[in-house]
Amino acid sequence: MPATTCAKALQLWQEKHEGANPEEAEIIKLMCLIPPIEKLDSVLNSLVNVKHLSLSTNCIDKMIPLPGLKNLQILSLGRNQIKKIMCLEEVMPDASSAAVGASLQQLWISYNQISSLDGLGPCVKLHTLYISNNKIASWDEVSKLSSLPQLTNVCLVGNPIYEGFTRKSVRPIVMKHFPGVKTLDGEMVTGVDNTDELIETLRTKLVEKYGSLDKAFEGYGDDLAVSEEEFGKIMAEFGIEGVSAADAFRHVDVDGTGQVTIGAFKSAIG
Question: Which InterPro entries match (predicted)?
Fold first, then answer.
């Protein structure tokens, strides 16, 4: 069965909305079509008034230039086959018109195949980015979000960078690479969480028991690098096990290298 074209999708939308003109509509939802949309095309440029365009749950393989959507504020492309964020910089033929990205405030693009956060540069008004369950595997990609002046609400859960972390333990790493985040994975970021309480408790226990951190770690050289498993065994000696030990490790391993030195740990909790 051939895919649904964008023109056909708009025709179906018009029939569903009692003959309303899609060119005048501010909200257009072309979701979950059977057969699905596979290719975007320039007919979408006719939606000159649209503020919210949803194309979620189709089989779209790539983004295309849509210079006609000068009023677009919300773009939903979740659950497709998109591999790259692109074409948000395209401008209208009229040089005075802004790029599509210049008006965009929310981008919902979870459940795709995106591995890079390049292409968001033009989105100077973007405040919400949901890009969960993609293929982002490098923390350097998250650092790129700092170039977006209004972005504060992001969802990254389900990407390879989160592998091995709890949502709680990954927060300090996200905040290091993207300090502007205020809402992460649907939860407010306060800058203080249970990991901070754990570190404070651990420091207090070690000092109470041994008199100082140096004495607690006597026999372990500051330059000794340990894996999370090895770190867990050391923490078990101090009565810190399981998730708590893992959270303590990741509190120190902010770069996600999988190793920390004893000296770095002492410095982090000292």
Answer: EF_hand_dom, Leu-rich_rpt, Leu-rich_rpt_4, LRR_dom_sf
